[in-house]
Amino acid sequence: MDALLTTDLPLPNRRVGKVRDVYDVELPDGGDGVLIVASDRVSVFDVVLANGIPGKGKLLTRLSRFWFEFLTDEFDHHLVSTNPRDIPGLSDADYVALEGRIMICRKTRVVPIECIVRGYLTGSGYKEYLAEGSVCGISLPGGMVNSDKIESPIFTPSTKAEEGHDENISFDEACEQVGVETMTAIRQTAMNVYLRGRDYALERGIIIADTKFEFGWTADNQLLLIDEVLTPDSSRFWPADEWQPGQEQNSFDKQYVRNYTEELVSQGRWDKTEPGPELPDEIIENTLARYEEAINRLAS
User: Fold this and answer.
1) Cα 231 from Cα 234, distance rounded (Å)
2) Residue ranges of the domains in the chain?
3) Which fold is adopted by the domain 110-242?
4) Cβ(59)–Cβ(291) under 8 Å?
5) Main-chain dihedrals φ then ψ at residue 223, nearest 5 degrees
6) Virtual CA dihedral for 186, 187, 188, 190, nearest 10 degrees?
7) Hey, how many other C-beta atoms are within 10 angstroms of the C-beta on 195?
């Protein structure tokens, strides 16, 4: 199976992100919508790598669809359909290529804040904790080590940078950007979604260490959970039976790819700028196997 790295559909307003292609569409009910196509591209350190992971986009779409359906009784979200045939005017070849990798969603005004919930201390949060004793202005107990559990998960927003890296900010700074009422509603929803997903995943042997959510406003001012939800591309997934605080964890997510590219950096073979390196077959196969195991545990 070949990786789907790009699309060129006869639809308006094509936007190309690091992993997804987005188009404007009319919803089945006649409203304004967007088509989100999950490609097989892989991005690390904000750079798209030279080759992709075949089928990755379908796996991520399958898991996001599962979570949206799992959460739909309690949380408002943007997903309307995952059926390509709900998009008129495409060719049979387009419908085949899009099968299993699209979401037709309500159009929103995206809130320009990355909404991160951390249940474990790792990544940039751990680095900030070592330097400051806190994460995004939230103080944590002394003596915590890498991958420690945070007894009461914390909400740590960051900027949503058009270029370059996102930067962690405090809740108050986020409120200054988008308003106290909006951020208070987002924080409550993000925490509740994380807790519900965390508990479900733990029953299936997966720790969701942290995750990133996005939100948007509809034309009639309804706040919706948007983008992907609780996937290996937006979260850290760890095997629960292998978790050991004080070290980096084995993972089901993109961290395996990051570790490989970090080795290239340490060896002076890449400098984290364009063009991205090509992943060898072994890394592709092992990453795909990790994704498949996690998604089969959660969505089967």
Assistant:
1) 5
2) 15-107, 110-242
3) D-amino Acid Aminotransferase; Chain A, domain 1 (3.30.470)
4) yes
5) -85, 125
6) 80
7) 14
For the segment 33-58, what is each residue's pLDDT rounded down to a tens digit?
A: 999 999 999 999 889 999 999 999 99
Give the global pTM: 0.93
Q: What's phi and psi for 297, nearest 5 deg?
A: -65, -40
**68-111 pLDDT tens trace:** 999 999 999 999 999 999 999 999 999 999 999 999 999 999 99
Q: DSSP assignment of 88-146, as one string?
A: TT--HHHHHHHTTSEEEEE--EE-SEEEEEEEEE-HHHHHHHHHHSEETTEE--TT--T
111 near 217, Cβ under 8 Å?
Answer: yes
Q: Tell me which residue has tokens 């196997």.
A: 289
Alpha helices in the chain (DSSP H): 56-71, 92-98, 123-132, 171-178, 180-203, 255-266, 281-299
- CA distance linking residue 223 with residue 44, whole number of Å: 29
Classified by CATH at the fold level, domain 15-107 comes out as Phosphorylase Kinase; domain 1 (3.30.200)
- DSSP letter for 177, please: H
Which amino acid is located at 83 in the chain? N
